[in-house]
Amino acid sequence: PAMVVVPQSFGDLLVSHPHLHALVSLGVFLRDGSFHSMEDVDFSGLEEIFRERVFDFMIEKGKITREVADDMRAWPHSGFQTDFQRKIEADDRKGLEGLLAYMDRPPVSLRRLTYRSDGMVHYQGTRVHPRLGVDHQLLPSVDFLALLANHVLLRYEITKRTYGALSTT
Fold this sequence. Notes:
Elements: E1 2-10, E2 16-24, E3 27-29, E4 35-37, H1 46-60, H2 66-73, H3 93-103, E5 113-115, E6 120-124, E7 136-140, H4 141-149, E8 161-164
Antiparallel strand pairs: 1-2, 1-8, 3-4, 5-6, 6-7
């Protein structure tokens, strides 16, 4: 198999939203370089398996209790989602590059950022944020930088992981 995983800490309007984007081959690469497709495999249970493994890991590390995990299982939206709708054909180089660019994008789009003469920063979202109830933020510069700082990686933090046929090892 081959997989690229990119963690992201941000959602729209720089609100904290930790999640992963993954590009996964729908098959395996054999040692001779050939590819064996697995498009007929049913991945519908993957979301539940991933959720339970994350819960087990967080419980083991003491980050949450079993009771917290049980409460989260009862939420209408678990916070876990796997989406297999977007498929990139093997010869679709432009589609692949677009998806990888989306996965590895920065937390702020300069097209949506405006510095005002009064020292305020206006950041336009892409839609109304469900929790904030607005589609933009208007903040003093220092407050905007404080939001942004949460999403800036330290010098040696890993931004991408590659596995299987794409592994750098």
